[in-house]
Amino acid sequence: MSGTGAKPAGVVDEADAARAVRQMFDAIAPRYDLLNHVLSANVDRLWWWRTARRFRAVLARPDAAVLDICCGTGDLTMALLNRRPRGATPILAADFARGMLSRGARKFGARKSGAPCAVALEADALHLPLRSASLDLIVTAFGFRNLANYEAGLREFYRVLKPGGQLGILDFAEPGGLLGRVYAVYFRRVLPAIGRLVCGKDGPYNYLPASVGNFPPPGEMLDLMRAMGYEECAWQPYTFGIAGLYTAARPVVVEERDE
Questions:
Q1: What does the buried/exposed string (b/e) look like for 148-160 if buried means 16 or more CB atoms within 10 Å of the residue's CB?
Q2: Does residue 197 fall inside a structural domain?
Q3: How many domains does the chain have?
Q4: Contact 83, 50 (CB under 8 A)
Q5: Residue 203 contacts residue 9 (beta carbons within 8 Å)
Q6: How remote is the C-alpha of 58 from its chain's centroid?
Q7: What does residue 131 show for φ and ψ, rounded to 5 degrees?
Q8: What mean pLDDT is predicted for residues 221-238?
Q9: Non-local CB neighbours of 117 within 8 Å, separated by 6+ positions
Q10: Has this prediction a pTM greater than 0.90?
């Protein structure tokens, strides 16, 4: 598992992979929300809601420091904000694709005066401009799979989480059985065709099914999280396993006392 990560067609190394992913998402940013909702039949809205609900306890704390990394156009950020109390510390919403982030920032800025808010931050998930042990919660939706190095991403998240801080990774999976075979036809043939029709580009929606196929299955992903030092690692499938939420926590460091 070490060193595995996103590999768009034609890339030669991790830097090249990161560059290709950024360019890809900047290119489809204007149509990204429309395509997400059309291609998922609006089920993606349920996934954002369930993810935010899972972390409702930490989100309810006004002083909790929260990061939505690889936030894209901010749909998950908005779901998280709906769980935040008035006057709460702003959520950090970060992405390295400026075209995506700028659209998310418009959503955050459109909230009513006095409502919980988010701050847009242009940042690379593998090199976060944040202090170590500074966050209570990190979440990411359909972005982790696109990191150039999964192990490095988990290590960086671990660094910036406080002891006891929580991690949530929402991403696609490949369901098994008959449903899996039917879904594979849709995912590998129908979805790319619709993507080309709507956004006029071929590469991004060919990359999507390939990236899911290359992503570690839940058992391997959980093993990697444990190997990086996380505890309480679990996976909750959504919508028959089409997607799922990985959860984990950075262990609480117990200081030894002198007897």
A1: bbbbbbbebbbeb
A2: no
A3: 1
A4: no
A5: yes
A6: 18
A7: -65, 150
A8: 97
A9: 81, 90, 91, 108, 111
A10: yes
Give the confidence band of 203 by pLDDT, cuts at 50, 70, 90: low
Residue owning tokens 């799979």: 145
Nearest to 164 by CA among 76, 235, 58: 58
Domain limits for position 84: 14-174+218-249
pLDDT tier for residue 39 given thresholds of 50, 70 and 90 = low
Residues 157, 149, 230, 49: is their CA dihedral positive or negative?
positive
E runs forming strands in 81-240: 91-95, 118-122, 135-141, 161-172, 231-238
Average pLDDT, the chain: 89
Tokens at 185, concatenated: 């036809």
233 in a structural domain: yes
**Which residues in 115-214 belong to E strands, given as ranges?**
118-122, 135-141, 161-172
- For residue 255, is it within any domain? no
Q: Give the pLDDT confidence of 79-109 residue by residue, as tens digits.
A: 999 999 999 999 999 999 999 999 999 998 8
Please state, as a whole number, how many other Cβ atoms lie within 10 Å of the Cβ of residue 232.
13
Q: Say which CATH number the domain at 235 has.
A: 3.40.50.150
208 within some domain: no
**CA-closest candidate to residue 93, choices 73, 111, 67:** 67
What's the first-to-final CA gap in the chain, in angstroms? 43
The yes-or-no verdict on residue 243 having pLDDT over 50 is yes
Closest CA to 233 of 142, 157, 131: 157
Q: Which residue has the higher pLDDT, 192 or 142?
A: 142
